[in-house]
Design a protein that fits this description.
10 helices, 2 domains, Rossmann fold, alpha/beta, 5-stranded mixed sheet, binds nicotinamide-adenine-dinucleotide, 36% helix, single chain
Length: 255
């Protein structure tokens, strides 16, 4: 498989390094609007720098977005229109109902596909399995150190409690995780989100509480930042790499 990565920042660079060493991947095409960001990965085995996003879409079988919503609206749309496989990191872009429906419609029409990695949260496999029968509730509790949400306080404080649709508007830094869980389970209106700040917290944590016909589950992750972008959890890059390995591997594990 030939892979194209649009956006060579924290996530794109880590995915590029892993992809260039992965069995089943014959080429890794790279594009970034900052030419230096792509050029510093040029030395990787099987890596090629594309001159434009259009060249990358033409060359790749799977187009990975690791940039922003604008790239989802343009490059991912073009890739799906061409019937390509795609992988999105800016999953918050799909909280926009009109954009999501348009991209899903394109994929249906052309045979393209959108892969959405679990990103910075754990438990997405459980939410998906639970959604097959009588999923009753999905709650995401995100806790950050106050500085992570540009706040100052010496007390644990609940900043928000409400539906994911409102959370993604009020907390853009939290949008990807809330969107991923919503899409995996009950949608943006039925997924409940709480956002808290804790002066004793040293890491961003996401707790997912699921109830349904299967029983009840609680999954919590305390994330470390990516080595190259403190705003991005390292787990997000790892989940994209794991999903890529799953796509090219002869064996699939997990829901
Ligand atoms: N799904 C998740 O859980 C999750 C977790 C963390 C981050 N993310 C999202 O993943 C995306 C990438 O995160 P990151 O930490 O790697 O960001 P980053 O800022 O480190 O890198 C983004 C790169 O995209 C490039 N870029 C911007 N516009 C571009 C364009 N039009 N064409 C090509 N390249 C372009 C930038 O130059 C930069 O190199 C962000 O949208 C972020 O919100 C998702």
């Amino acid at each position: 498989m030939k892979v194209g990565i649009v956006g060579c920042g924290a996530i794109g660079s880590e995915v590029a390094k892993a992809a260039s060493a992965m069995d089943g991947i014959e080429a890794v095409w790279l594009f970034d609007i900052d030419p230096d960001a792509a050029a510093h990965l040029r030395h990787l085995p099987r890596a090629h720098v594309a001159k434009t996003a259009g060249e990358l879409v033409a060359k790749a079988d799977l187009v990975i977005e690791a940039a922003n919503k604008g790239v989802v609206q343009t490059v991912i749309r073009d890739a799906l229109a061409a019937g390509k496989k795609t992988m999105l990191m800016t999953i918050g872009a799909l909280a926009d109902d009109a954009l999501r429906e348009e991209l899903v419609g394109l994929a249906k029409k052309t045979g393209g596909k959108m892969y959405l990695p679990s990103g910075a949260v754990m438990g997405v496999d459980g939410v998906k399995a639970a959604a097959e029968a009588d999923l009753k509730s999905v709650t995401l509790v995100t806790t950050k150190p106050p500085a992570g949400l540009d706040k100052k306080t010496d007390r644990w404080t609940l900043l928000f409690s409400g539906p994911a649709r409102e959370a993604v508007q009020k907390f853009p830094k939290n949008v990807n995780v809330a969107a991923t869980l919503s899409l995996a389970g009950l949608g943006f209106d039925q997924t409940h989100v709480q956002v808290a700040i804790d002066p004793l917290a040293t890491r961003n944590s996401h707790k997912v509480i699921i109830e349904g016909g299967f029983g009840r589950a609680r999954i919590e992750v305390e994330n470390l930042p990516s080595p190259t972008n403190p705003a991005t959890s390292y787990l997000a890059s790892l989940s994209a790499i794991a999903l890529l390995r799953r796509i090219v591997s002869p064996i699939e594990i997990g829901a």
